[in-house]
């Protein structure tokens, strides 16, 4: 009798074991699929962000190219001669006069005033000079000098 009872009990357990294993396997499969779906969503989001960044970079580059082209066209339009000598001479003087005004008058006056105020406030003159001619001033000097030198070189190359 005990053998029958044990046989029935173990028979039932062994018959249920594959079903329990299938249920556990399906549970693991579902959690794995969910994890894979989450990873796929992350990858899709990264791809979307990357595509958006690339589109923005291309838009910025095309805007930059359009701005450069507009500057080139404006410079060409300024160089067109009217045929009236005094108007053409005045037009040719605008850029150099403005650049020299900034280079010789205004910009040095600001630097000297800043230097004088710093020395007056008790700052060491060498440190005051260093602060007066900082990164911004160096960038401005370099951009003005390169503008004139590059413009001159381009005019020589084009034969004007």
Description:
This protein is mainly alpha-helical. The chain has 2 domains: 1-80; 83-160. Helices cover 91% and strands 0% of the residues. It contains 4 helices and no strands. The chain has helices spanning 2-79, 85-120, 125-132, 135-158. The N and C termini lie far apart (118 Å). The mean pLDDT is 79.
Summarize the structure.
The chain has 160 residues and is mainly alpha-helical. The protein is built from four helices and no strands. Helix 2 (85-120) packs antiparallel against helix 3.
List the helices and strands and how they pair.
Layout: H1 2-79, H2 85-120, H3 125-132, H4 135-158
Helix pairs in contact: 2-3
Overall shape: elongated
Strand content range? under 5%
Which structural class matches the secondary elements? mainly alpha
- Helix fraction? over 70%
Give the helix tally. Answer: 4
Number of strands: 0
What integer value in Å does the Rg equal?
A: 39 Å
How many distinct folded domains? Answer: 2
Task: Show unreliable segments.
Answer: none
Write the H/E string, N to C: HHHH
Q: What's the rounded overall pLDDT mean?
A: 79
